[in-house]
Predict the structure.
Amino acid sequence: MIFSALTPSKTINFLRKMSPWIGNVFIIFLVVGLYYALVRSPIDYQQGEMVRVMYVHVPASWWCMSVYVFMAICAALGFVTKHPLFDLTVKASAPVGASFTVISLITGSLWGLPMWGTWWVWDARLTSVLILLILYIGYIVLVDAYKDSDQGLKFGNILILLGAVNIPIIKWSVTWWTTLHQPASFLRLRGNAIHPSMLMPLLLMAGAYGLFFLWMLSRRLEIELLRRKITAYESRQNAYSTVTQV
Amino acid sequence: MKAVFSDVSAHIFYLIAAYGVAFIIFTVLWLVSWYQLKYVRQKHAQLTLK
């Protein structure tokens, strides 16, 4: 099988080579994105300066869902191929996805308070994103709750796959139900409704978020792989010392 | 005029708060990964040298 070539040592070497490059490209995207978002982007005729919250809120919302979809694909591949790298990729992605969800919820509230007059409503979009955060936290807690790490990863994958039903609910919640949240203005059938002067900083910031995810994923995956190697070394040493004592 | 000014300064406050929250969360994620990576690399090196 093609995945058998993905040994821990080869993967760690690849991640160590790639990680600094991804980090550097992220910094470039972030600096240019922030310049466009805070300086070049025009103010909105209704929202004024507050429209600039969009450049930090919308990419976080896109990526908190995208990271979850990525995790669900890796969880499914983990079940099909039985390769531990996929399970560890799911584990390494979870804290980043959860953090993006927190950013989405907090920046959404900070945008909502001056624009809607309230920081929170229990409408379909906000509630389904809160459920997404609960799924992320639930996964992190569940995986760490097991003494046998492989068993924890397996049950965590099941949770991620079951929770994937929430993703289309988040995406189409603004279409299916009457919500305070505005309908989609970028990924929609009738084409995007954002002016190019605002689309440019939005895409740059979305690129920065995506690169940050890849950067953190490469670092966190190396951590998980090294932890696994350390556990294997320690258990081998314990077994050897037990044998020599006997 | 005073109302407009207070409105603008309130908006700036929310704007700074939104970017500040994102900055803090990004920094915490990077710092945690930096510390954990440093720790596991050291421990792995110690074990493989034994």
